[in-house]
Design brief:
Chain lengths: 205, 314
């Protein structure tokens, strides 16, 4: 990926900052070019853009949000933002081809050295605390043991854009980055997933 | 000897720039000399205020150079950030969404377009009559009556403080008292100067010899506020030549403005306390703490505006 030495702030980042602030708070770790999987609570459609916009510019170029194909892979401005700006990794929730593993595009992106932004709840939970996580994060964590797992809590957004709303109510939200989640030898899938959820919920306080 | 509009702006902004430079030099000297950590915090606060005032000075120099519409745009942006901050402090429910969308995307542009076009009869009532009747209807539509009155009150007060009151500042620039036609922007500059001087002098005086901290704002002391009020009234009186007022009228107008600014700050402090105050993270300087920056003008702008309309515009 060629990056120009000076990059102007993309309009989408401007817009997100203007509407909802998206102020980053690095609580448990510092911004770093180390390959990472950021996993966050999912309360509104804006989460994807907000978390991405909260990252420093030099990390944004190398960090790809994972998002539902049925929402983002469309024509028009939404599809254009997803492809050209966010460089979204599309995940197929509808499972058109039942034989294909929906995690395959994620593995491919990780193998190519990208950091990822994932929302392990799989769907939006419009409330302060995240719902139960799905197990995809476990499979990725085990398959890529060198990648840092960073819990992220996005505050306030469910109030800005409840389900079904077209426009966001402007507000100020913070994006809190926690300490990397440790992998424990021989830990069961359920316990790992539960621990990941708790790490995100712990940042809510 | 009558100065032209441009000459007056030039003189006033030049004097302000000189003043800010002198203050910056003084603050840096003080900072270099003091080792006392308590004093250093005070000086640090002064310094951040000074930096903000440089930014505001530059912004308004551009605004005044471009004219009334640019001034309305500046205050519209300030209103947007203030309302955004207000909403972030307020618990809202999904049922309030439509009302808030109207508050942000309809109320702010409409109010400021009306102000910039000088349609006094409508902008005086658009928010406190039309929207105050329409918004509760929209919020009642969903039949979510839990805390209904509180929710309606919060949306209405948010609009009142951060949009309606603030919009009266650029409205001052559209006033045309007899013999003062086309110089409204100068009157706005005068008003802002009086408010800003009372604020800054109060903070500085509180830092230097304040004893009894105010309960509403621990950064200011009772003595500091009194000194700031007196000094700003004197400054406002001595600047009578840039207004349509006579000397003693300017004294009364600036005293009223300073008093309104003080009680406005008191009300805003109470609003913030009751919403549960919080400090915003380091972000863009302009978008952080906008409510606090505007607290001086929320009450004083309508007071100054209406006093001028009542006594000086036939």
């Amino acid at each position: 990926m060629a990056t120009l030495p000076v990059r102007f702030l993309p309009p989408i980042v401007w817009l997100v900052r203007l509407l909802v602030g998206a102020y980053p708070r690095w609580i448990g770790c510092a911004p770093s070019a180390v390959q990472r999987i950021y996993f966050a609570n999912h309360t509104s459609h804006m989460d994807t853009v907000v978390l991405w916009a909260a990252l420093p510019g030099e990390l944004r170029a190398n960090t790809r949000p994972v998002a539902a194909k049925d929402y983002w892979d469309r024509g028009g401005i939404r599809g254009q933002i997803a492809r050209d700006e966010l460089n979204v990794v599309m995940i197929d929730r509808a499972r058109d081809d039942p034989a294909a593993d929906p995690l395959d595009p994620l593995r491919e992106a990780l193998e190519n050295g990208f950091s990822l932004i994932i929302f392990p709840e799989g769907t939006r939970t419009p409330q302060p605390l995240p719902g139960p996580f799905r197990s995809g994060i476990y499979h990725l964590a085990m398959a890529f043991p060198a990648v840092e797992l960073i819990p992220v809590y996005i505050e306030n957004l469910h109030r800005s854009m409840p389900k079904g709303a077209l426009l966001p109510v402007p507000t100020i939200c913070t994006v809190r980055f926690g300490a990397p989640l440790a992998r424990i030898e021989g830990e069961a899938k359920e316990s790992f997933v539960e621990r990941a959820r708790d790490a995100v919920a712990a940042l809510a306080g | 000897m009558e100065l032209s509009l441009q000459q007056t702006f030039f003189a006033v902004f030049g004097a302000l720039a000189l003043l800010a430079t002198a203050a910056s030099v003084l603050v840096h000297r003080l900072m270099a000399r003091t080792g006392d950590p308590v004093k250093l915090t005070w000086i640090g606060q002064l310094n951040s205020r000074l930096q903000a005032s440089w930014l505001i000075l530059a912004l308004f120099a551009v605004g005044f150079a471009l004219g009334e519409v640019a001034l309305a745009v500046i205050f519209a942006i300030a209103s947007f950030f203030a309302l955004r901050e207000f909403v972030a402090l307020t618990p809202i429910k999904p049922a309030d969404h439509t009302a808030l969308i109207i508050a942000f995307y309809v109320a702010i542009p409409v109010q400021y377009v009306l102000v910039a076009s000088g349609w006094y009869q409508l902008y005086a009532v658009f928010i406190p009559v039309y929207l105050f009747l329409v918004l509760p209807v929209i919020m009642a539509w969903r039949h979510d009556t839990e805390l209904y009155l509180q929710r309606v009150a919060k949306v209405q007060w948010g609009l009142m403080l951060s949009v309606y009151c603030v919009s009266h500042a650029p409205a001052i620039a559209t006033l045309e008292p007899p013999g003062y036609e086309g110089r409204g922007a100068l009157l706005l500059l005068y008003f802002l100067l009086v408010v800003y001087m009372s604020e800054s002098i109060a903070v500085m005086a509180s830092a230097s010899f304040g004893r009894t901290p105010l309960r509403s704002n621990p950064n200011k002391s009772r003595e500091g506020v009194l000194i700031g009020a007196a000094a700003a009234t004197v400054i406002g009186t001595l600047l009578w030549w840039m207004t349509p007022f006579t000397l003693w009228q300017a004294a009364l107008m600036s005293a009223a403005t300073v008093f309104a600014a003080f009680v406005g700050g008191l009300v805003l402090a109470s609003v913030k306390r009751s919403l549960g105050e919080r400090q915003w993270d380091q972000g863009v300087a302009l978008s952080r703490g906008v409510l606090e920056r505007l607290e001086g003008i929320t009450f004083s702008a309508p007071v100054f505006f209406h006093a001028t309309v009542y006594f000086f515009v036939p």
